[in-house]
């Protein structure tokens, strides 16, 4: 399949380029586009024929539902059953890196929700994504634009590598802002929202808006969910081909010791460490790179998938220092624990 690649400057968007891609959406074609979280692989979310092409391009199992992307608040009323009181609350988070699971309306085809009666819906904050949806005049169903199971794409090279020849259009719009997928919360189980996937919007922020919030243990990525509420979670995710070894410890000295011990088991390992720990490794003749700092977990999040892809198949193990389950750090550790082959 021939893929047309369009370059767009998100700070100075040429409308004609977006209109061309939006026309493709109207014709049931597939379009990769940037969002503030990761790149998405989109198609007309009201067309079964179009949505099927997403699953085919990614090699995604059909029982793993997609997120419906919309460009305005009104769309929540069109595609889900939601009270005005609840809509008022979620409006405070729109547009933004958060997805809401709500009861779905009939117009949304079953293929989007994998046959469930609930729909995951989100209004992204990226100007290119918003314009694309607006001009397409339909909601856009979109998962992350990676081959199923691989790390999500956060840079143009990633989408070109995974999706060239598999989709009709790729819109290149620079590097993403957050680098981890949206927070997902379930609003269908009683009055208290349940976090299904941690993301850029941390629990503290949700507590401000909803008062209370349930954080099941599986959100930390340490155990499989006992009931598969978020179906995507039953598959191994975010995993490069090279094994990832995650090292967790709240004491820096102990963590570094574990890393140095683990390094000995491989011929060509790479250590991905915090900036603050460079001093520990640089005298050991060890191949290392930094992945953010203790003082800025956002930087860690935005570099995470970039690093997993950069060193994939270049080394024989990636030994990664973990961070605290705090703020966006919860999302980072959730992805790392799912990508990990071993956790030490
Ligand atoms: P992706 O956009 O690739 O991160 O995948 C979307 C994810 O959203 C899926 O893997 C599910 O975990 C989640 N999701 C989508 N629809 C639902 C739903 N109806 N209920 C719960 N989780 C959902
Ligand atoms: Mg994904």
TrEMBL record:
Keywords: ATP-binding, Cytoplasm, Nucleotide-binding, Nucleotidyltransferase, Transferase, tRNA processing. This is Threonylcarbamoyl-AMP synthase. Residues 15-201 form the YrdC-like domain. L-threonine binds at residues 37, 69, 122, 142, 182. GO terms for molecular function: ATP binding; double-stranded RNA binding; L-threonylcarbamoyladenylate synthase; tRNA binding. It catalyses: L-threonine + hydrogencarbonate + ATP = L-threonylcarbamoyladenylate + diphosphate + H2O. Belongs to the SUA5 family. GO terms for biological process: regulation of translational fidelity; tRNA processing. PANTHER family: SUA5, THREONYLCARBAMOYL-AMP SYNTHASE. It is found in: Cytoplasm. ATP binds at residues 60, 64, 118, 144, 152, 197, 238. Its EC number is 2.7.7.87. It comes from the Bacteria. It is an enzyme of class 2 (transferase). GO terms for cellular component: cytoplasm. Required for the formation of a threonylcarbamoyl group on adenosine at position 37 (t(6)A37) in tRNAs that read codons beginning with adenine. Its main location: cytoplasm.
């Amino acid at each position: 399949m021939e893929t047309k690649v369009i370059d767009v400057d998100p700070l100075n968007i040429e409308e004609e380029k977006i209109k061309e891609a939006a026309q493709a959406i109207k014709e049931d074609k597939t379009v990769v586009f940037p969002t503030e979280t990761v790149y998405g692989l989109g198609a007309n979310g009201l067309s079964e024929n179009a949505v099927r092409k997403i699953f085919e391009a990614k090699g995604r199992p059909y029982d793993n539902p997609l997120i419906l992307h919309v460009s305005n608040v009104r769309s929540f009323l069109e595609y889900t059953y939601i009270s005005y009181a609840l809509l008022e609350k979620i409006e405070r988070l729109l547009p933004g890196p958060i997805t809401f699971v709500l009861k779905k309306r009939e117009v949304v085809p079953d293929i989007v929700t994998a046959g469930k009666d609930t729909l995951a819906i989100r209004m992204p904050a990226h100007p290119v994504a918003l314009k694309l949806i607006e001009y397409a005049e339909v909601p856009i169903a979109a998962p992350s634009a990676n081959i199923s199971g691989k790390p999500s794409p956060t840079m143009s090279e990633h989408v070109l590598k995974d999706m060239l020849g598999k989709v009709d259009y790729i819109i290149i719009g620079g590097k993403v802002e957050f680098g981890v997928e949206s927070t997902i919360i379930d609003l269908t189980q009683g009055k208290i929202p349940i976090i299904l996937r941690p993301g850029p919007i941390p629990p503290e922020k949700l507590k401000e808006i909803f008062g209370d919030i349930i954080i099941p243990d599986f959100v930390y990525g340490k155990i499989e969910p006992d009931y598969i509420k978020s179906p995507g979670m039953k598959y191994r995710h975010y995993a490069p081909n090279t094994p990832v070894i995650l090292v967790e410890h709240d004491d820096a000295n102990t963590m570094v010791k574990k890393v140095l011990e683990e390094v000995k088991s491989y011929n060509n390992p790479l250590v991905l460490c915090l900036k603050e720990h460079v001093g520990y490794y640089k005298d050991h003749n060890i191949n290392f790179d930094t992945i953010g700092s203790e003082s800025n977990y956002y930087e860690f999040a935005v570099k995470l998938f970039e690093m997993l892809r950069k060193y994939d198949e270049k080394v024989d193990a990636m030994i990664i220092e973990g961070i605290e389950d705090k703020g966006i750090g919860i999302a980072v550790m959730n992805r790392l624990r799912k990508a990990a082959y071993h956790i030490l």
